[in-house]
Design a protein that fits this description.
Elements: H1 39-50, H2 54-66, H3 69-96, H4 103-111, H5 113-144, H6 155-175, H7 177-207, H8 225-239, H9 255-284, H10 287-292, H11 296-304, H12 311-340, E1 350-352, H13 359-371, H14 378-406, H15 419-438, H16 440-462, H17 468-485, E2 487-489
Antiparallel strand pairs: 1-2
Helix pairs in contact: 1-7, 1-9, 1-12, 2-3, 2-8, 3-8, 3-9, 3-14, 4-5, 4-14, 5-6, 5-12, 5-13, 5-14, 5-16, 6-12, 6-13, 7-9, 7-12, 8-14, 8-15, 12-13, 14-15, 14-16, 15-16
């Protein structure tokens, strides 16, 4: 993980990629990621990444900690509102610092290398692979459900299918960005349609005279701060991904215009769809049925769709497939940028000379995800991931306020009202603090893993007198990856 100079044969000018088909960026004199993302692609990435496994996993957990359907619905709507505030803050950060990498770039700009490295460290081993593993497992469970209609699919089969789909989407991302964005656009439309079908099916159920499940919706509400914090965690987990477009700002056409537009279009759409989907669940299922279900959408379909109940697992599989595809695409750019800045091995920042995609970054992330595919405690994973992510989102928004104070001269095409980042900081701080009382182990493990990154940063980044064998090993690994994947470092011109 040392920052070393490009070894012989790894210089961008060693090969002219301007003749490689449609690699138009290469014709300008170097190997670079191309600006191929339109406003529609940006909206599809945000909606596609957000609407994934969460809406099908989290409703039972949200109801468990909220206590009542009414409070759970409030949690879902407020989670969307809070995510919208965070996304607007990120719109200012993304247009003020138009670099790929999202939180990594913003934290580094505001607070320096160590906090930025800690975010990269946690994202590499916790945030991204765990989220991808949950999504892949949800896809596998639902695609196999029609084959085991009366029982749970075998764990080994679920893990195998999850691994296969992860590898398939990684290969697709390595091969062609345009195919990835087309799949993302198509599956985003399909998943919104699927959730709307769920809502209209529940309307039919209600108009048939079944309104008993929506009576006394506030009965049993839990008001303990710790439980409410965990309920918000489950809701926020379902909205996680609203900052993923910031990871690929350098590939977005007209980022100053399209980044905020994509956010302002996507977040209200997702919040409305989530609210309608939860109303659908609440109208058809009782409290006990929701709490007892690990796949609320499947339980919903079995009760209301009858012989057509097989269609819901298929819908869920479509949603999670698109979500995993978008997450793999966006998060690979985070590690690519981190390696480009010297915080990860140089090999991860290499770009395929023919297809202009960060192949080593994608493959490395795939391998880490495969290791985590055996995870089975979804509730603990959600708290674990969301608590750690909340800490660094807090850090990014605090960086916005800090840069307002220390770098007032920076160009800010978007400037949000100061009350928004302050309110976001206060609310998220309370959520993190209160969650410590309910799930201290998960939060404690996350904080401990963050702290472990400090000595790693010192050994591999700060320590200047590293032994020659370590430097030689890093150089040999970088050259091997370059030859193995036919990749070169990104052209530094105009970065």
């Amino acid at each position: 993980m040392t920052k070393v100079s490009a070894a012989e044969g790894l210089t961008p000018k060693a090969m002219d990629v301007g003749e490689s088909g449609d690699n138009t960026e290469g014709s300008n004199g170097g190997v670079r990621l191309k600006k191929e993302l339109s406003l529609l692609n940006g909206v599809a990435i945000i909606v596609g990444v957000i609407v994934g496994s969460g809406i099908f996993v989290s409703p039972s957990l949200a109801l468990k900690y909220a206590g009542s359907k009414g409070m759970a619905l409030i949690v879902w709507i407020l989670s969307g509102f809070l995510s919208m505030i965070g996304a607007l803050c990120y719109a200012e950060l993304g247009t003020m610092i138009p670099k790929s990498g999202g939180d990594y770039a913003y934290i580094g700009e505001a607070f320096g290398d160590l906090p930025a490295f800690l975010y990269l460290w946690v994202a590499l081993f916790i945030l991204v692979p765990t989220g991808n593993a949950i999504t892949a497992l949800t896809f596998a469970q639902n695609i196999l459900k029609p084959l085991w209609p009366v029982c749970e699919p075998p764990a080994d089969a679920v893990s195998l299918i999850a691994a296969v789909i992860t590898c398939f989407l990684t290969a697709l991302n390595c091969f062609n960005v345009k195919w990835v964005t087309r799949i993302q656009d198509s599956f985003t439309a399909a998943k919104i349609l699927a959730l709307l079908v769920t809502f209209f099916a529940s309307l039919w159920y209600l108009f048939s005279g079944h309104t008993e499940n929506l009576e006394n919706m506030m009965q049993g509400t839990i008001t303990e701060p710790g439980n409410i914090a965990i309920a918000f965690y489950t809701g926020l987990f379902s909205y996680s991904g609203w900052n993923y477009l910031n990871f690929v700002t350098e590939e977005l056409k007209e980022p100053y215009k399209n980044l905020p537009r994509a956010i302002c279009i996507s977040m209200p759409v997702v919040t409305l769809v989530y609210a309608l989907t939860n109303v659908a669940y609440f109208a058809v299922l009782t409290n006990n049925e929701i709490r007892a279900s690990e796949a609320v959408a499947v339980t919903f379909s079995e009760k209301i769709l009858g012989v057509m109940s097989w269609i819901m697992p298929l819908f869920v599989a479509l949603c999670t497939f698109g979500s995993l595809n978008g997450a793999i695409y966006a998060s690979s750019r985070l590690f690519f940028v981190g390696a480009r800045n010297g915080h990860l091995p140089l090999a991860i920042s290499l770009i395929d000379i023919k297809r202009l995609t960060p192949v080593p970054s994608l493959i490395f992330m795939c391998l880490v995800t495969l290791v985590l595919l055996m995870s089975n405690n979804v509730e603990s994973l959600i708290v674990y991931v969301t608590a750690v992510e909340a800490l660094f989102i807090l850090c990014s928004v605090a960086g916005l306020l800090w840069l307002r104070y220390t770098r007032a001269d920076l160009q800010r095409p978007i400037r949000v009202n100061l009350l928004l980042p302050i309110a976001f900081l206060i609310i998220c701080t309370f959520l993190v603090v209160f969650s410590c009382f309910t799930h201290p182990m998960e939060v404690g493990i996350g904080v401990a893993f963050i702290a472990l990154g400090v000595p790693v940063f010192w050994v591999f980044i700060v320590w200047k007198d590293r032994p020659s064998w370590l430097l030689n090993a890093c150089n040999s690994f970088n050259v091997f990856c370059s030859k193995m994947f036919l990749c070169l470092p990104e052209d530094s011109k105009d970065l």
